[in-house]
Amino acid sequence: xxxxLFDLPILVVDDDAMVRGVVVEYLKDLGFxxxxxAKNSQHGLKLIQNxxxxxxxxxxDWEMPGVSGLVLLKALRKxxxxxxxxxxxxxxxxxxxRFKITQAAQWAVNAYIIKPFTCDVLKEKIWQxxxxxxxxxxxxxx
Length: 142
Hints:
This protein is α/β, with parallel strands linked by helices. The protein has one domain: Rossmann fold. The chain is built from 5 helices and 5 strands, in the order βαβαβαβαβα. A 5-stranded parallel beta sheet has the order 2-1-3-4-5, with helices on both faces. Helix 3 links the parallel strand 3 and strand 4. Helix 2 packs parallel to helix 3. The longest helix is centred in the first third of the chain and has 14 residues. The two termini are 27 Å apart.
């Protein structure tokens, strides 16, 4: 367990601008400052494949046109320099079928978040997958 790293490079991938915006706002409210948005899965895939881009955590929607969140997870796990990067899958209730969960588990997804969710749920999942102490709280902003 450790203290939160608020400068952790976080990639948020979601084709829905509203959902992506909410996730980014939640991250900012929690004190994170190094956030990159990918407005579609193809952009997210390019960033994951570019090892020059530092990456500590990926928050990705599951169902997106073209490249799914599962494809992004597989690309992350197949990349030798990214294998240990934490990955949280964001999904709707209807897409949590057993087959999908099994597939994501085979590729070592770290956690799931089911939409809609609160900032507290996002914090809990991030702290859990990063192995941070709960007492770390949020960073004071402003």
